[in-house]
Structure formats: structure tokens, C-alpha cells
Design brief:
Elements lengths: L1 E5 L3 H12 L3 E5 L6 H5 L9 H4 L2 H9 L13 H16 L4 E3 L2 E8 L18 E7 L2 E7 L1 E4 L20 H4 L3 E2 L9 H4 L3 E5 L3 H12 L8 E6 L15 H14 L6 E4 L1 E8 L4 E7 L7 E5 L1 E4 L25 H9 L15 H4 L6 E3 L13 H15 L3
Parallel strand pairs: 1-2, 1-7, 2-3, 7-16, 8-15, 9-10, 9-15, 10-11
Antiparallel strand pairs: 4-5, 5-6, 12-13, 13-14
Helix pairs in contact: 1-12, 8-9
The structure holds flavin-adenine dinucleotide.
Flavin-adenine dinucleotide (FAD) binds next to helix 1, helix 2, strand 4, helix 8 and helix 12.
Length: 397
């Protein structure tokens, strides 16, 4: 089959490798560079070790090619992971897999069959996919017999506002709100000696707080505020956590949410308005539980880490069944909710096998972080399990 893979992140690259080994003709469309999203947090040390981030197939290909593999117990940075694993894999596949970098998939549809027709099968089976792709301002169509969406969620950050919708003033803030995990050492000018607010209680928020605290001396922010919906102790500690970096972040989070002079902690509140002034940003917060206290926080910079959600627009013309809560594909979402939905431990998760990858559109699959919808519990390790299941479903070419 001719298979189009949307996204050249960790999971897209592993899909390409396995599908090529099965004898299919594979094209990977990557909006940026290979591993683009990981590159953007490349300065951060991963909390999962090498052994969880490499597949058996990928490791053997590199070993056979004479590429030295780092010790499986070590923890790479995002940049190490791209340069020492993803890029060598891509180099080894060159000539066999079409890697289209800087090529964004704008939409995917079936040729000649509309979304509303042939529900869940019938003639949809034989009708090829048409992908509208954009490269350097030029658009073209590509066709495929199967499409794998490994586009991740990194392109769509959730709003900072209470309830998840934008609050007054938030849309106008534009890039004045940083929604990722920047290399704070490289943006000292923006954050040094400033009043800074961090919104959110996930690992990205605490990574940003740790980065801001690391800007010491002259460069330290003059005041650091932290807003979370949870009233206190936002992190559930995992007993004997096998991922020490994750345990350290969780412990730091709980310390900062306690009586710690380094941060002004506002627990049990959500942001209800942003007002951008010439010299400052005024942020109003409202209580979401009995412990929360309404206040107005005046800062220079805002980092909002309230998670990401999938871009469902790309495949809107296909028959994809999305979960109404997570926006992930329905079977995968139901599996997560029924199984380990409550677990604070992403290591406790197991991919659900081939059955959960199926959805109404024949020969179309969603894998990787995008398959988890709004859940942030996805790990590359789960993506590697999904690639095994996908290989079973697709079969040899
Ligand atoms: C600070 C930080 C630390 C992390 N640490 C870990 C860790 O230690 N271990 C771990 O397992 N995970 C970690 N993660 C999570 C990790 O980012 C994901 O597990 C991983 O990136 C998921 O891979 P993916 O291939 O599914 O998606 P992504 O890495 O998001 O890749 C998707 C790719 O698709 C491309 N794309 C998107 N839309 C389109 C389109 N329409 N057309 C073409 N291309 C498109 C994107 O540019 C991107 O390159 C961390 C995340 C952050 C933010």
C-alpha cells in the first residue's frame, strides 16, 4: 500500500520504519523538521530513559548500520533524542521512505466519496485518500491507500481561562502569553528581573517554574506567581517512582505550593480576565473551590501551561469518531477512561492493542500523542506499542 504518515515526530518516524519493513511505500509529511515538537523543548532532559524511547526495530537498524546507541538507563535531553536517534533513523531510511519536511497536511478526504456517504465502510474501502499538502506556500494533492495521523497535539494549546475557554482579553494577548516550555536561559531578557505568572499544574508548568527559579541572582524574576485550579499539593507522588526526574518535579511542585517564599501560590483559582496595559498585564483570578481567593495579579510576563488538544480539522472530511470529552478517537478514549484514566502514573498505562486503533474510516488510524486527545499521559513508549499493533492491523505490503 501507499501509506501517508502525518507528522515526523517520534511516533510518525517509528511508523514509517515499521511500515517500510513490511514492504509498504511510505511518505511522511512533517510540517517543520523531523522531531519538530521535541526540538522545541530540546533543552529539557527527558524523564523517561533511552530504553523507553527507542523501539527494537529502530535500535537494530542503527546497530546494524554501526551507529552507537547510548546507554538505555541514561536520560537524554529532547535535543539528544532527536540528534542521536530520530535523525540517524531517518538517514538510514533515506531512499526507502519519502520524508517531506516543511510540508503541512492541510486536509485529508476520500476521492469521490463524501464524509456523509457509505457510512463506516462499503465503497470507502477501495477509494483512495486525497491529501492537500502545503510546502513553502505551494499547495498540491497527494494520494494514498492508507493514512496514519501521528500529528501530535503540540500545535494547539488550551486556553488559560477558567473552564478552558478564552476569557476576556486572552485572545488579544497573542504571543504575550508563552504557552510552551521555552529555554529560559536563552530568553533571559524576557524574564530576568520581571514579575512572572505561571498558570497550570502539569509537568510543563513545574518545569517552567524550575527554569525560572534557576535564573538566579540578577536574572531572577522579582516576583513569581503560580495559579492552579487545585487548592494545594497539585502533584500526586508515586511511591518508589522509577522515573526520578518526574519524582523531583512533583516534589518541587508540592513544595512551591506549600509555604515557600520563592513563589506566591494561588491555589483553587482560575484566570477570569487578562488586561494588557503598556507596562504590565493585569490578571484577574476567581475561586473555583472553597479554598480559592479572588485577586488581581499584576505581572510583566505570563507562561500558560494548561495542556494541548488535537487538531481535528485536518481529518474533518473523514468518518472519525471523536470522544466528546477528550477529542481523542473514541475507542482509544473509552479504553483510557475505563482503564487507567485516574492514574497519575503514565508508566502504568498500556496501549490498548489493535482493537482500539480501529475507527469507522477504513485504513485510517490515529496514533501517538494525538490518539490520547487532551490527556497528557502519553509517553513515547506507548507510541511504540501502538506501532506494533498498527503493523498487525496493516499487515505486509
Ligand atoms: C517538556 C516536555 C518533556 C517531555 N518529556 C517526555 C519524556 O521524558 N518521555 C516521553 O515519552 N514523552 C515526553 N514528553 C511528551 C512527548 O512530547 C510526546 O510523548 C511525544 O512527542 C509524542 O510523539 P508524537 O510523535 O505522537 O507527537 P509529536 O512529537 O508532537 O510529533 C508530531 C509531529 O507532527 C507534526 N505535525 C502536526 N500536524 C501536522 C500536519 N498537519 N502536517 C504535517 N505535520 C504535522 C508536528 O510538527 C510534529 O513534529 C515531553 C513533553 C514535553 C513538552
Amino acid at each position: 500500500m501507499r501509506i501517508g504518515v502525518i507528522g515526523g515526530g517520534p511516533v510518525g518516524v517509528e511508523c514509517a520504519l515499521r511500515l517500510r519493513m513490511l514492504g509498504h511505500t511510505v511518505s511522511v509529511y512533517e510540517a517543520g523538521r523531523i522531531g519538530q515538537n521535541v526540538r522545541e523543548w530540546g533543552h529539557v532532559r527527558m524523564f523517561s530513559p533511552w530504553s523507553l524511547n527507542r523501539s527494537e526495530a529502530g535500535s537494530s537498524l542503527l546497530r546494524d548500520a554501526g551507529v552507537a546507541l547510548a546507554d538505555g538507563e541514561q536520560f537524554p535531553s529532547g535535543a539528544d533524542y532527536v540528534s542521536a536517534y530520530l535523525m540517524p533513523l531517518v538517514r538510514e531510511m533515506r531512499g526507502d521512505v519519502r520524508m517531506c519536511e516543511h510540508t503541512r497536511v492541510v486536509s485529508v478526504a476520500r476521492s469521490g466519496i463524501l464524509k456523509s456517504e457509505e457510512i463506516g465502510g462499503g465503497a470507502r474501502h477501495g477509494s483512495e485518500f486525497r491529501l492537500l499538502v502545503e510546502h513553502e506556500g505551494n499547495e498540491r494533492n497527494e494520494t494514498a491507500d492508507a493514512v496514519i495521523d501521528a500529528g501530535g497535539v503540540w500545535s494547539q494549546a488550551n486556553w488559560a481561562g477558567i473552564g478552558g475557554a478564552p476569557v476576556p482579553g486572552e485572545r488579544a494577548m497573542g504571543e504575550r502569553i508563552e504557552r510552551r516550555v521555552p529555554d529560559l536561559g536563552q530568553c533571559r531578557e524576557r524574564y530576568a528581573q520581571k514579575r512572572v505568572l505561571v498558570v497550570g499544574a502539569g509537568y510543563s508548568a513545574i518545569t517552567n517554574l524550575a527554569g525560572l527559579l534557576a535564573l538566579r541572582g540578577e536574572d531572577a524574576p522579582t516576583q513569581l506567581h503560580w495559579v492552579t485550579l487545585t487548592p494545594n499539593m497539585p502533584y500526586q507522588l508515586i511511591e518508589d517512582d522509577p522515573l526520578p526526574a518526574r519524582a523531583a518535579l512533583a516534589a518541587l511542585g508540592n513544595t512551591l505550593a506549600g509555604d515557600d517564599a520563592r513563589v506566591v501560590f494561588h491555589g483553587g483559582v482560575g484566570v477570569s480576565a487578562f488586561e494588557e496595559r503598556r507596562d504590565a498585564v493585569r490578571v484577574r483570578v476567581e475561586p473555583v473551590c472553597a479554598e480559592g481567593v479572588a485577586s488581581e495579579i499584576v505581572v510583566d510576563e505570563v507562561l500558560s501551561n494548561t495542556g494541548f488538544r488535537p487538531d481535528t480539522e485536518v481529518t474533518r472530511e473523514l468518518q472519525v469518531h471523536h470522544c466528546y470529552a477528550t477529542e481523542g478517537p473514541m475507542k482509544q478514549a473509552a479504553y483510557l477512561l475505563a482503564g487507567s484514566g485516574d492514574s497519575a502514573d503514565c508508566l502504568a498505562q498500556v496501549a490498548g492493542g489493535a482493537a482500539v486503533l480501529r475507527n469507522p474510516e477504513p485504513d485510517f488510524y490515529i496514533v501517538g500523542a494525538k490518539s490520547y486527545g487532551r490527556s497528557s499521559a502519553f509517553l513515547i513508549r506507548l507510541g511504540l506499542e501502538q506501532v506494533d499493533a498498527l503493523s498487525e492491523l496493516v499487515g505486509p505490503g
